[in-house]
UniProtKB/TrEMBL annotation, chain A:
GO terms under biological process: transmembrane transport
Keyword terms, alphabetized: Cell membrane, Membrane, Transmembrane, Transmembrane helix, Transport
Sequence similarity: Belongs to the binding-protein-dependent transport system permease family.
InterPro entries: BP-dep_ABC_trans_perm, MetI-like, MetI-like_sf
Chief place where the protein resides: membrane
Protein name listed in UniProt: Carbohydrate ABC transporter permease
Signal peptide start-end: none
Alphabetical list of SUPFAM superfamilies matching this protein: MetI-like (SSF161098)
Recorded GO CC terms: plasma membrane
Highest taxon above the source species: Bacteria
UniProtKB/TrEMBL annotation, chain B:
Domain ABC transmembrane type-1: 63-274
UniProt KW Cell membrane keyword: yes
InterPro entries: ABC_transporter_permease, MetI-like, MetI-like_sf
GO CC list: plasma membrane
Subcellular localization: Cell membrane
GO biological process, any: transmembrane transport
Main location: membrane
Family: Belongs to the binding-protein-dependent transport system permease family.
Transmembrane regions: 62-85, 97-120, 150-174, 214-233, 253-277
Species name: Limobrevibacterium gyesilva
Keyword rRNA-binding: no
Taxonomic path: Bacteria, Pseudomonadati, Pseudomonadota, Alphaproteobacteria, Acetobacterales
Record-given protein name: Sugar ABC transporter permease
Automatic annotation (TrEMBL), chain C:
Signal peptide: 1-27
Protein name per its UniProtKB record: ABC transporter substrate-binding protein
Main location: periplasm
Species assigned in the record: Limobrevibacterium gyesilva
Keyword field contains Signal: yes
Length: 267, 285, 430
């Protein structure tokens, strides 16, 4: 039993290391500067703790502002996807209606299409609508990418919540909407939060559409893509590291929430 | 319920409208682009773009590479994530920390993930340092060049497994936590082994989650390209990177759109296969 | 049970929403889009050094060359203009002029006459229309850089400033024999400028032309020779986007690239490197001078500001600052001061040696291809990939790719450019 426990715990540890070690290594690459990147053999400890590469990177004009645009677009994308996607997911899960299959197909079709190309015909219409080169425009475009996630994930969430719970609520005189708000929504919230994270992350990480739809108000990824691929390795690593930090923090912020999802299973 | 007949339509209307404007319209424009070519009298319907695409030297490679990646990565990720999700059920202390660590890659873009693994796999990278120390290689060694296609494929698979397993994991964990504990307890009463419990109870109950995860992952795997670009450069063409090259570098939107249509048809086919293979009858919902 | 988590999430949401009040502090700055000096460190030098004393605040934005016409076209069609000033290569500005996206700058050109831009260079900015479409901005070229450790392996009797491709191969082969490593490098990565090597260096050197002799016997011999040379080339070359990194890392001892893309290596370790002209072939020392120009977008939000900035950038002092900062050289009459840093001096000497070589054979950037420029480059890279990387027979590949090239030229109707002989109508592959 203890042996099994030991194997189990080391399995957990290995999987944690599998995630963390690469992150540690890019952090090394990011703080080490050019000399560390060109050194051989590599040291697994930082020679000196200097943040000069990263501060130099963050001081480059445009990095901070583009970070802000990234957050704007990502939050908008998150809000739109949840507000539009959750009701649709609920409809798919709870109602057998004519056109449900077709709707599901349209949603899937969206996911089955490469992002990149869609932004191009959109450029011209966005300019006409005044959405070109705005975080709102980018957020809208990203919603087109994240919405299918939101719909599909929330559909499968609601599907997994027994219908009887709601029916019980109706019996006690709750209206459809109240039953949804009081009974179903709390159960589904952890999953919806996960969906919101998806939406945020999709937008935060999306490069191509953001590049095409902006000139001056570039999001961080778009900004990095245009400069990173032509920068020396240590700057690339610093850029990669900066891209990663917020996502690590964001996931940390909602980790209790992810944990709470676990709590429901123990009910 | 009075409005039951109308309710679902009201619920889907906003998203449908949104998708019509921001997805269907540009989609139609793109498909039109793929099937048009400049003729003597302006643009005319033609399959010239597809002919050029199929005649291109990278087309066959791109198809093969794309499928190789999807076929290797998606099952790998599903198994890994299932294993992790099952392990998580038995973690008592520090569950939220483990869950947090395992879901970190969820927030990492493929651009950043490519850079992470580039730092490890370059000639003078950390992998070679370790291998050198173990005496496996002598001095810097390249793994990502056109002369080492298998190592390059392995590198991309590893990087993709590292980055995107978390998405599958979160969907599965969300599914697992909705499986009532009583099912497992009942199985215990009947003396089921852990493996039987997993295959006979957990897997069937997780089917909707697995379906969602598979669809999302497969379609995303067909779409991936920043990770391939940062690790393999032009040594490892995939369908979307070719679409990107035709669009951006070669400035031929028609051929780029043709590639886009191919990716769409393939993804659509894969999606349909999953929908049919993992169908959940309504009465089990 | 989910309360704390939810509160955290809503706090995050709220915090993020507050950020939505957008800071538009620099919304009114004039937008200067450039396809040159894109790398992060160079762009920063442009903002901090070159544009520091600009007449008005400037938002310096970089754009990949293929994306520039897409963006300009989109702004034209959409009618909302953000770009005022465009800085790009001669060949990149031409399609913009063709689509009518550039303002004519005849008055400005007349005013700038006393700056001493050579007439033939100024005239390039007219694209043969009789109107000034852009003002020449700065120039550069490509060169070779070698680590000093490689010098002992130079073949006997070879002059590094008058190298031939055969000697280069012998040199790299000697290094490979002694060190066991392939130390020659080319920027053949996805964002590298390898196609320029074929268009401006290898083809002219071996065939005396680019388009006309594309599938000639000389070209066939050239590709066979280059496939031989490639045996001594570091296989990572197909991932190199520019050579200064592998040179600095010691992965590569001899490299070819655009001066701005090796300058960092020369600057960081001027004592470790030498710079010299690209090799010569049977037909001469083919090389491609690079000319960048400044143009004002039609419908620019701030056309006057853009012209004032052109005036500023074409001042001798600014041009010298530009040379110091990013390694692009003046087009106006300006003498580079003697106190240049040692790395830049190496580059200047190599560029002078390239243009001044007895067998120099200048080759222009492709002209008149408009949006097909990318596909033109692809013809060379595809041929390279098929012949050199996949080992196919050059004859069959050249015949096939020659048809492709002819199709592009016929569709665009582009006449031949130097060093090919001038043509009536579209250039013809022989």
């Amino acid at each position: 039993m203890t042996l099994r426990r030991g194997v189990f715990l080391s399995g957990i540890a290995v999987l944690c290391a599998w995630v963390l070690v690469p992150l540690y290594l890019i952090a090394l690459g990011a703080v080490g500067g050019r000399d560390a990147v060109n050194s051989w053999p590599k040291s697994f400890w930082p020679a000196e703790l200097s943040l000069s590469t990263i501060t130099a990177f963050m001081n480059i004009a445009g990095v901070w502002t583009s970070t802000l645009y990234s957050v704007e677009a990502a939050v908008l994308c998150m809000l739109f996807s949840i507000l539009l996607g959750v009701p649709a997911g609920y409809a798919l899960a709870r109602f057998a209606f004519r056109g449900a299959v077709a709707f599901r197909l349209v949603v899937l079709l969206t996911r089955a299409f490469p992002v990149a190309i869609l932004a191009l015909p959109l450029t011209v219409s966005f300019i006409r609508l005044g959405l070109y080169d705005t975080p709102l425009g980018v957020g809208l475009m990203h919603t087109a990418l994240a919405l299918p996630f939101a719909v599909l994930v929330s559909a499968s969430l609601f599907q997994a919540i027994p219908r009887e719970f709601e029916e019980a609520a109706w019996v006690f005189g709750c209206s459809g909407i109240t039953a949804f708000l009081r009974v179903v929504l709390p159960l589904a919230l952890p999953g919806i939060a996960a969906t919101a994270i998806f939406a945020f992350v999709i937008s935060w990480n999306e490069v191509f559409a953001a590049t095409v739809l902006t000139v001056r108000h570039k999001t961080l990824t778009a900004y990095l893509l245009s400069v990173l691929s032509e920068s020396p390795l240590h700057v690339q690593f610093a850029g990669g590291f900066v891209l990663i930090i917020p996502s690590v923090l964001f996931i940390f912020l909602v980790r209790r929430h992810l944990f709470a999802m676990w709590g429901i299973a123990n009910r | 319920m009075r409005n039951t007949r109308l309710a679902p339509y009201l619920l889907i209307a906003p998203s449908l409208l949104f998708l019509a404007v921001l997805f269907l319209v540009p989609l139609v424009q793109t498909v039109a682009l793929a099937f048009q070519a400049d003729g003597p009298g302006g643009a005319a319907w033609s399959t010239a773009n597809f002919a050029r695409m199929a005649g291109d030297l990278n087309f066959a490679d791109a198809i093969i590479n794309t499928f190789e990646i999807v076929v290797i990565v998606v099952p790998l990720q599903l198994c890994l994530a299932l294993g992790m999700a099952m392990m998580l059920r038995h973690v008592q202390r520090g569950r939220d920390i483990v869950l947090w660590i395992w879901s970190i890659p969820l927030g990492i873009s493929d651009l950043a993930a490519g850079l992470v693994w580039l730092a490890i796999l370059t000639d003078q990278g950390y992998l070679n340092t370790v291998l050198n120390w173990l005496g496996v290689v002598k001095g810097p060694q390249s793994w990502l060049s056109y002369e080492t296609p298998i190592a390059l494929l392995a590198a991309i698979v590893v990087a993709e497994a590292w980055r995107a397993t978390a998405i599958v994991l979160v969907i599965l964990v969300a599914g697992v936590q909705l499986v009532p504990k009583e099912y497992g307890e009942a199985a215990d009463v009947f003396g089921a082994t852990p493996w039987q419990r997993f295959t006979k109870i957990m897997l069937p109950l997780l089917k909707p989650s697995i379906q969602t995860a598979l669809i999302l992952r497969t379609v995303l795997a067909f779409e991936m390209f920043a990770i391939v670009l940062s690790l393999g450069g032009r040594n490892f063409p995939v369908l979307v990177s070719e679409a990107f090259t035709w669009q951006y570098a070669n400035q031929n939107f028609g051929v780029a759109a043709a590639y886009a249509v191919v990716v769409m048809v393939i993804s659509l086919a894969a999606t349909l296969v999953y929908l049919l293979a993992l169908r959940t009858p309504p009465e089990q919902r | 049970m989910t309360r704390p988590g939810l509160r955290g999430l809503s706090a995050a949401l709220l915090g993020a929403t507050l950020l939505l009040a957008p800071p538009r502090a620099h919304a009114e700055d004039m937008v200067f889009v450039s396809t040159q000096m894109r790398p992060i460190e160079e762009a920063q030098k442009v903002r901090d050094t070159i544009l520091k004393d600009a007449p008005a605040p400037v938002a310096y934005v970089t754009e990949d060359p293929p994306a520039l016409p897409v963006r300009v076209k989109a702004e034209m069609q959409g009618g909302k203009h953000t770009i005022s000033l465009i800085g790009a290569l001669h060949g990149e500005l031409q399609p913009l002029a063709t689509m009518g996206a550039l303002m004519t700058l005849d008055d400005l050109a007349a005013r700038l006459k006393e700056r001493g831009i050579p007439d033939e260079v100024m005239k390039l900015g007219q694209f043969g229309t009789g109107h000034q479409m852009y003002i020449p901005w700065m120039q550069a070229t490509y060169l070779m850089v070698a680590n000093r450790q490689a010098l002992p392996y130079l073949p006997a009797g070879a002059d590094i400033n008058a190298l031939t491709y055969d000697q280069l191969q012998a040199w790299a082969a000697a290094i490979q024999e002694k060190t066991g490593k392939r130390m020659l490098g080319f920027p053949a990565g996805p964002k590298g400028l390898m196609h320029r090597f074929f268009e401006g260096f290898l083809y002219p050197s071996y065939t005396g032309g680019v388009v006309v002799p594309f599938r000639s016997d000389d070209a066939e011999k050239m590709w066979t020779a280059f496939a031989g040379l490639w045996k001594t080339v570091n296989p990572n070359s197909t991932s190199y986007n520019f050579m200064q990194e592998p040179l600095l890392a010691g992965d590569v001892w001899i490299g070819f690239d655009h001066v701005a893309r090796v300058l960092d290596a020369l600057r960081q370790k001027p004592d470790d490197f030498v710079a010299f002209p690209a090799p010569a072939g049977p037909k001469g020392r083919g090389y491609m001078p690079v000319l960048a120009g400044l143009a004002v977008a039609k419908g620019a939000p701030d056309a006057n500001g853009a012209m004032a900035l052109i005036d500023y950038l074409a001042k001798p002092e600014t041009q010298i600052t530009t040379a110091r900062a990013v390694g692009f050289f003046p087009v106006v009459k300006a003498t580079l001061p003697p106190d240049l840093d040692p790395g830049l001096k190496l580059a200047v000497a190599a560029i002078a040696a390239t243009g001044g070589a007895k067998d120099a054979l200048p080759s222009l950037l492709p002209i008149g291809l408009g949006q097909k420029g990318g596909e033109f480059d692809k013809v060379f890279m595809d041929t390279f990939q098929l012949v050199v990387l996949r080992g196919q027979k050059p004859r069959a590949v050249l015949d096939r790719q020659g048809q492709e090239m002819q199709r592009i030229l016929t569709e665009t109707g582009a006449p031949c450019w130097a060093p090919d002989p001038p043509s009536q109508g579209a250039c013809q592959v022989k």
